[in-house]
Structures are given as structure tokens and as C-alpha cells.
Amino acid sequence: MIDRYVETVRALRTVNQFNRFHLELEGVLGPAEFADLADRILAFDPPLPDAGLHWARALRELLARSGRAPQAMPGYAIAPMAHFYRSGNAALPRESRTLVVCFTDAPMRMMMPLPLFLQHCPSTAHDYLVLRDPRRAWFLDGIDGLGGDVPGIAASLDRLASPRAYRRAVTLGVSAGGLAAWWTAIALGFARAVSVGGTLPESIIGIPAAGGRSTAGFDDLVQARGGALPELVYVYGEDHGHDREKAALAAARVPATLVAVPSVGRHNVFYDTFLRGELAPLLERLIS
Description:
The longest helix is centred in the first third of the chain and has 15 residues, at 50-64. This protein is 41% helix and 16% strand. The chain has an 8-stranded mixed β-sheet with strand order 1-2-4-3-5-6-7-8, covered by helices on one side. It is of the alpha/beta class and 288 residues long. Helix 6 crosses helix 7. The radius of gyration is 19 Å and the shape is globular. The protein is built from 12 helices and 8 strands.
């Protein structure tokens, strides 16, 4: 990994180029994989460019705030924008583990760099499949290799990730990924679907950026399922007015459990709880 990193950064010339490359790495590396790369960057001789040193040092320091060694969660791609991360306890069979399908926000993050997010996730009996939408279209246009819309994504996940082989399967979507998380869990009959400050159909319909895209399939699916729905959870910062309003709309649309995170006044619930040392217990509550 360090060889590829060195070869790439030696060809970069601008701050934007460095930022794009680092954001790409932040979107796919697991905690232990990132920590190893960061340590090698910081120790490399001759020293690498300052942009790389600053990135490695800053994220390494954030990772260390968890108070535990970087979690070994080796990952691999099942599609260009879909990466699977195996639980640290590889000896546990799937029927004893939980699958967590994650839908990222518009910047293709789980409200923070992926190594930092996974570092605070339960891992001994959990596997994670992280989906990213480079079109920034709420996953309504699908993602390459996994279908052309949300039902197509769900059908591909059912085939490629074998969620029914797991003890339990849940979805977790943040911001722009929230609606797709609920939609997919309903389509596949998962146990729980969690939306963190997530987009609702009301947030999409009629706005210019939607480009005529429709969310009608979500309402049709909810109606078709009747009362046979997963546990639908909507998480929001207690002091964030817009997300509080969205939570009320969500509860009016479907039978949702609302989770107000105290003393959070920003949309980014995960990063604020991380800064307070409360992210790990929050994720344990939402996922397990």
C-alpha cells in the first residue's frame, strides 16, 4: 500500500489533487489498514510532501481518540462503489453475525472518514457493506454494478451479500443515504433500518436537483407490505431544528421510532457524538 501511495503522491502537484486522493482513501480503508499506511507515511525517508504528512497525522490522531487499537477489518470491493468489511472475529459463521448495509451521504462518507466510523462500530460479530453514490442522487439512480435504482440495488445485495444467511441484517443510512436505507430494508425484509438525519421523499420531490426523479416506489412498497415492516428508526440531533422537523414528518409517514440525540445542534450527529466520546455506544445501540 505504501508503494502505491508514494508513487501516486509524487505525481500530484496541487492541493486539490492531494485532497481528492486522500478523500478516495478515506472512503475505502478500514481502521487497521489506514493506521498502517499512516504510520508508514510518517516514517518514510525521505519525507513525503507536507500535505500527506498532515493528512496521515491528523486522521491517525482522531483514530487514537477511540482509546483502543485500530480494528482489523479487512475489506474488498464487490462493485466499484460497494466495499465489504469482514468482522474481526473471522471464525464466527455468518449465521452468528449481523450484516450492516451502510448508505453514505452526498460526500460519500458515513458523516466522517470511513476508518474513523468503522473504528467505533461493533465488530466482533458484525460485517459491514458500505455503498457510495458518486452521482449524489440519493441512490435513486442506483450505483454501477448494483442496479439502476434502489430496487435494483436491493436485488443485487440479496444475490451478492447473502443477507438471509446472517443471524440478522440491518441498514444504516446517513443524510442523503437515509431513504435508500429504509427502502432497501423494507424490500429485503431486514430486521431494522436506521436513518440518521436522512432524506425523506418530501425532501426530494419537486426540487430542481431531483431532475424529475420519483420516490413513488417507496410509498408503493410501504403500502404493499402493510404492517410487515422492519423496525424503522430515525435519528436526529435534538437541537437541530430542520432534522427535528424531518423526524416528525418521518413518523407521520411510517411507524418510525424517533431517537433524539441530546445536546446535538448540527446535522452531523455522528461527528458530534464522536467528539464527546459517545459514538461507540450510540452505534452499538443503533446496530446491535
